[in-house]
Batch of 2 targets.
Target 1
Amino acid sequence: MNGPFAATLYGRDLHAAGVPVQARFVGNRLQIDGDAVLEVAADQIRVDTGGFDHDRVYLGWDTPAGRLSITPVDAAARATLLGTAPALLDAALRRHVRGNRRARARWIVLGGITAGMILLLASLWWTYGAVVSWAADHVPTDVEAKLGAATLAELKKGGKLIEQGPAVDAVREIGTKLTQGSRYRYHWAVLDEPSINAFAAPGGQVVVHRGLIAAAKTPEELAGVLAHEVQHIEQRHTLKSMINGLGVATLATVVLGDVSAMAGVLAYQVGTLRYSRDLEAEADRLGLDALVRAKIAPDGMAHFFRTLEKEAPQMPIALLSSHPATGARIDAIEAGIAARPKQHYEPLAIDWPAVQASVSKDSDPKP
Amino acid sequence: MDMDPIDYSIHGDDLQYVEVRLEPGRRAVSEPGAMMYVDDGVTVSSEVGDGSGRETHFLARLWRGVRRSFSGESLFTSTYANDAALTRRVAFAAASPGQIVPVDLAAVGGELIVQRGAFLAGARGVEIGIALQKRIRVGLFGGEGFIMQRLTGNGVAFVHASGALTEMRLAPGESLRVDTGCLVALQNTVRYDIRYVGRLKSALFGGEGLFFAQLSGPGTVWLQSMPLKRLSQTMLGSAMAAGKPRGVFGILWALAVVVFIVANILLGGGDGS
C-alpha cells in the first residue's frame, strides 16, 4: 500500500485552476480520490514534463471526454510520486528527472564560463604591466635597432640632424660614460632645433635638441638629461609605451618581425611619445644610479630641471611639459640625490662654453 | 492572504482604461503613472516595494522593489486607499493602444506569469515578482527574454498589452504554436518552449523568424495580436517612407516609365526603317 500524494487534476471540462485531489498508486493502477474519483491503469499513463519552469511532471491519460492529467502539488508530493510509481513508469520518470537535471547543469556550465571569463579579464587587468614588460622583453634587440635606425633615417630627411662637431662629441663623451657595458650600440646626435628637448629611440638612438645644450649651464646638467634618456632605452620604455598605446596589433607586428610598417608609425611617434608617470620616475631613478656609477655629479639633473622651471617658464620645455606633476618629479629627483651617499665628483673635463658656442645661432633668444 | 475584492469596469475599445470602484477601507495598487483619475477621499501614496504590506522592514521592501524593477516595473508602487465613507472610484489607463484584461488570480491557481511590464494595476494582495526563464534557448529566442513578471495572490490583476488580447484554454496535452513576442500571459502550469520553424525557406521568407513559441497545456494563455515591437517597426517604417515617394509602387512606376520609353524607341525605330 503506497502513501497518497496531493495533486492537482486538470482536464478540458474542469476548472482552469485544476481540481485538488489525492492520488496513490495501487499496484499498476493510479487511484484518484477527492473532488474527483477515478482510476487508471499505469500502462495508459503518459509522463510529460511541463509548467513554466519545465519542472512539473504530468501524468496524463486519455478519456472519452479528452485528456486528463495530474501533477503533484509540491516537492514532497513529487518525491512520493517518484518513489511509489510502478516499474512500468520508471523509464519515463527517469527521463523527466534527467531532463530537469540537465537544464540545471546547463546553467552551472554557463555560470562557470562567465565566471571564468571575468576571472581571466580580471587577472589580465591585474597583470597588465607584467604582460607588457614580458612582451617588450621578447622583442629582439635587432628589431629595436631597426626601429631606431628607421626613426633616425626619418629625422635625417628633415636635414636638421647634426652628426659631428664639438656638441655631438660632448654628448658622445658623456653618453659613453653613462652606457658602460650596455647591450645596445649607442648613436648620439644633435638636432638643430631651438626648443629644449631630448629624446631616445629604441636600440640606442639618443637625440639632443640644440636648445637644450644652450640652456644647460654645465656639462653635468646635460649628463643628467642624457642619463634619463638612456634609461628609456635600457628599460625599453618606448616599446612598452607603444604596446600600451597600440595594443595587440603592435605586439603581433613587432614579435613577428614585420618592422617596416611599424617603423613609420614609430618615427612619427617618437617625438610626441609620452611615457607614463611611472616610466618617467623609473628613468629618473635609474638615471641617477647611472650618473653615480659613471662618477658624474648627479645634482646636474635636478639643477637643470629646477632652473628651467624657475627661469624660463615661457620657453617651450618639451622635456618637462609633457609630464603633469613636474614639481613633484623634481622633488623626487632631489630626494633621490639626498638619499645617496655624499661623495666627491670630479667635474667633467669638457670646454662647455666652446660646445655651446658651436651650436649657438644669432637668431636664438638670449636666456 | 490579505485581499480586497474590487468592483471594476473597463472602458474604451483600443485605448482602454479600467475604472475601479473601491468600497470604504478597500485598496488598490498600480504602477506609478498609470492613474488616470481618482475621486476625492482616496488617499494616494507611493511606497517602495509592491504595496502588499507583507514586509514591514524597509530593507525587505526595498529588496522586493529592486526585484520588481528588474521585471520592468517601477521600484515604487502607488497605493490607493479609500478612506471615505462612500464607494470611491479610481481609474488606470493603459499607456499604448491595446487591451486591458482582468485576471482573477484565484481562478488560475494563485499565480500568473506575464510579459515584462504588462502589469497595470490590481487589487491589494496582488504581489509582483520576477519569473526567471530557466531555459536558455527560450530566454534567447522565445521573444519574452529571460525575465517575466510573476503575479501571485488571489485578487484581480489588470494585465495590459498592445493589440487585441485573446484568452485561450489549453487542455492537458494540447499545444499551440505562437509567434514569438505574442505571448502576454500564461498560467504557471503551461509549458513554454520554443520550436524551430523547421524549414530554412519558411524561416527566411515566412516572416515569422526562426522559432515559434510552443505552449502546451494544461492551463490558460493570453495572446496579443500586435506586439509593441512589431507596431513600432511598422510605424517607424512608414515614418521613414513618408519622406520620399518610394517603396514598391515607386519602383513599379519607374519600371513603367522605362518600359514606356523603351517601347517608344523600338516602335519609333521600326517606323523609321
Target 2
Amino acid sequence: MKYIDEYRDPQSTRKYAEAIAQLVTRPWTIMEVCGGQTHSIVRFGIQDLLPDEIELVHGPGCPVCVTPVDMVDKAIEIASYSDVIFCSFGDMMRVPGSKSDLTRVRARGGDLRAVYTPLDAVKIAAANPQKQVVFFAVGFETTAPANAMAVYLAKKQGLKNFSVLVSHVLVPPAMKAILSSPDNTVQGFLAAGHVCTVMGTHAYTSLADTYHVPIVVTGFEPLDILQGIYMCVRQLEDGSATVENQYERAVQDDGNTQAQDLIEKVFRVIPRKWRGIGTIPESGWALSDEYSSFDAQQRFKLAEAATEEHTECLSGKVLQGLKKPADCPAFGVTCTPENPLGATMVSGEGACAAYYRYRKERVV
Amino acid sequence: MNRADSFGGSCPVPLGDQPCIKLAHGGGGRLMQQLIEEVFIAAFDNAVLRGGHDGAILDLQNGRTVVTTDSFVVRPLFFPGGDIGTLAINGTVNDLAMCGAKPLFLTSSFILEEGLEIETLWRVVQSMRKAADAAGVLIVTGDTKVVERGHGDGIYINTTGIGCVDHSLFVSPPRIATGDTILVSGDIGRHGMAVMGTREGLAFTTQIESDCAPLWSTVEALLEAGLEIHCLRDATRGGLCSVLNELAQDASLQFDVVENDVPVMPNVRGACEVLGLDVLQVACEGRFVAILPKNESVLALEILKAQNEFAAMIGHVSSAQAGLVTLQTPIGSQRILDMPAGELLPRIC
C-alpha cells in the first residue's frame, strides 16, 4: 500500500538502525511523546533493532490514558441519564472510571454510540431533538480541530440539545512538566507528528532552548521513527539542541493555521488535570466564553468529586517515562487488557496495552 | 417450478395483508401457520420439511455424523456481499466442513422482533434458500418465535447443521504436528470491514464486500486429492488471530507466522490502517486456516489457489512453546501474536 509499505521496508529500516549504531558512543534516553508512536515501536519491535545504548521511554501522549478518572466518572454519570445519547470515540468506551466504565452503562441500557468523528454526534443531535446528545471531547491538539468544528456547527445550526464534555490536553506543557521534574531522565524527544500537523513546530523552540534538549518532530511508521531517532541521536552526540522536522511530508512549521483559528475561537487555555500525573498549568482547553453554553458539565450541573486511582497501578509513572510497564507488579497479572486497572492498559496507544499485546515473552 | 420461484425476488405479501411481524406470528395460531407455509416452506421447500412433523426424520449416510450449531446476530441485517441469511447458512455449513464433513441438513430457528417488515424477512429467507442451494444442504425443520418490539434486532437466526464424514481422517486440533505448514484459503478481513463500513456509514472509496461463502467444495477438493489434512478452522469472529491462538493452545504447539505472507486486499488494509484496527483480528466468513504436513503443502496451496488466487502459506508449527503464536513483523522483528481482547474499538487518532 502506497505511503505505508515504503515506510515499513525491512532493508531501509535495517540501514537506519545500522546508521544509528555507528553514530552512538554512549547511552541516551529518548522519549517518544505520542501513543501512536509507542504503538508502532512495540508493534514492529523497533527497540530490538536499536543498539543497547539507546533507551526509548514512552511519553504521556495517549489521550485515552491521560483523561482523568473524575472526567470518566462524569461521562458515565451523563451517559446513564435516560434522555441522553452519549457519543464517544471508540476506545474511550472501555476506560475504567472509579466504579464502572461506559460499556457497562451501555449494557445496562444507556444509549452510547461510538462515533468516528464528532461531526457525527452533531448529526445525531439534529436527528434526535427530543434527546440531549453529548460528545466526549477528549484528545490532544490532533482531535481539537474536529471537536471545535462540532461545537462551532452546533452553534451555527442553533442546536439546543448538543453539548460536549471537554477534556482536552496539550503536549508542550506536558513535555515542560517532564523536563522540570527532578526525576527526569529524558535527554531527547520525538515530538508527536500529528499534533504538529495542527499546531506547527514553533512551540517547541523555547523548550529545546530552555532545557537544552533536541526535539525531533516524528511520524509514526517504523522508518519515520528510526529516522527520528537517528536525527535525535545525531544532535545528542553533537551536543546540539534544536527542533528538527522528520515528518516533513505532513508537518509545516506554521501548522494548520485555519484549524488554529477555529481552536482559538472555540476553546480557551486552562490548567488541566492529567490522569496519573496531576494538574499541569496551562495544559488543557475548555470551551471559550462564547461557546460555554455547550459545556456538558454546566448543562448537567455535575459536582466535582474526589476520585482515587487503583493503588497498585503505576500508570502515572509510566506516562512520565519514569517506569516501564513491566516494572509494575500488576502488569499482565492482575492488570490485562480484559481487566485494566489503569488507563495505560486500555487504549491500543497506551504503553501497557501495547507492551502486553506485542510482548515478546509470556507474562508469568 | 416450485412455489418460491414463482414469487420471484419479492415477498408474496400474503399473510392476510400483514406487512409487519406481529406477536401473533409467534403465537401458534393461524397467522403463525401462514407465516410458516407462505414464507418458510415456500422458500425452503423439500420433502422432509413438507412432512410437517414435530421433527425431521432423516436417513443418514454411512460414516461418522457431525453436528454443529450456531446463532447469528448481525447489525445491519444486510451488508455488501451478504446478509444475515447467507451468514446463517454459510456459518453452519462451514463449521461442518471444518470437521471434514459434507454438509447435508440444517435446522433453522428464527427469533423475530415485532414490527419487522415481512418483506425484509422474505429477502433474508430468499438469501438462505440460495445459500443452502449453493452449499447443497436441505433445511429440514425449524422454529419461529416473536419477541416484543425493542427486544431484538429485527431477526436472530439459529441454524444447526448435520453432516457426514465419508473418509478416514480425523480433522481436529490434536492431529496438528511439529513441522506442519499453516495455510490460509484467501485474503482476510473483508467481512468485518464490510459490516463495520455499512454499520458506521463509513464511505470507503472502494466498497468492501464480505467474503461470506460456503467452504465445503474447497475442503472436498483437498480431501479428494488425498491430502493428509491435520486441521481446518474457519476464521470468523476474532479473525485469523483468534484461530491461530485457539489452535496453538488446543494442539499445545507453537505457531510461527510471517505477517507479510498473510494476504490482505489493499482496500481492507487501508480501512484498517485508517481506523487503527489490526486486520489479523477482523472477522472473515469465507476463509479458513488449513494445517497439514509440509510435504503436502505445495499441492494443498495449488488446490486452494484454484478456488481463491490469494490463498497463501503463512507459517509453520514448531514445538518451542506450547500454545504460543509468534509473528514476524514486516520489518523483520519477532513478537507474540496475542488473542484479541474482545470488541474491536477504533482508535481516537
